[in-house]
């Protein structure tokens, strides 16, 4: 942009801000606006408003698609800018004919970016107890139902946990997790 800049706004359904270097700040054009009751009125406006109404397809598509993205308030500012820029690039990328909808186009772009990557299963970290004295004191450690299937060992899942330690432990004939956890210092060996 070169030369003086014209900054203005126009109240459409929402407020639309303009920044132009090729228009003058003279309200010599008229445009038609519909009221809520259906009647139309003529309003004076600048050339920026009439040009916007004439060529607004891409701008409205961009506004519509970026409004769909819900931003988290905890997201860092640079991530918000990155998401907005990616949306802008996707909206303005040449796609030949516009026979596809925006969602299918974005899904295709996401599949191409992600590719065939495999996600490895993340293992839960075992919560460390405050001290080994509580774990090894052999007083009032009772297996109770936890309501969900958890695991401490790699052999099996269990719905039982120690009432005092709040750790899921196996109690069956094949494994001795419950006994080992409460009697051995190195229970994982």
From TrEMBL:
It comes from the Eukaryota. This is PiggyBac transposable element-derived protein domain-containing protein. It comes from Sinanodonta woodiana (Chinese pond mussel).
């Amino acid at each position: 942009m070169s030369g003086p800049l014209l900054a203005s706004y126009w109240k459409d359904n929402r407020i639309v801000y303009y920044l132009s270097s090729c228009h003058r700040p003279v309200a010599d054009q008229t445009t038609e606006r519909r009221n809520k009751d259906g009647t139309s009125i003529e309003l004076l406006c600048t050339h920026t408003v009439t040009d916007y109404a004439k060529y607004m397809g891409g701008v409205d598509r961009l506004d519509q698609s970026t409004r769909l993205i819900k931003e988290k308030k905890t997201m860092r500012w640079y991530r918000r800018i990155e998401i907005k820029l990616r949306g802008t690039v996707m909206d303005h990328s040449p796609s030949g004919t516009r026979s596809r909808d925006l969602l299918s186009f974005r899904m295709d772009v996401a599949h191409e970016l992600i590719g065939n990557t495999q996600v490895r299963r993340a293992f839960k970290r075992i919560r460390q107890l405050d001290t080994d004295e509580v774990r090894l004191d052999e007083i009032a450690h009772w297996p109770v139902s936890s309501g969900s299937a958890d695991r401490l060992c790699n052999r099996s899942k269990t719905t039982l946990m120690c009432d005092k330690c709040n750790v899921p432990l196996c109690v069956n004939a094949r494994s001795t997790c419950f006994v080992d956890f409460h009697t051995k210092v190195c229970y994982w060996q």
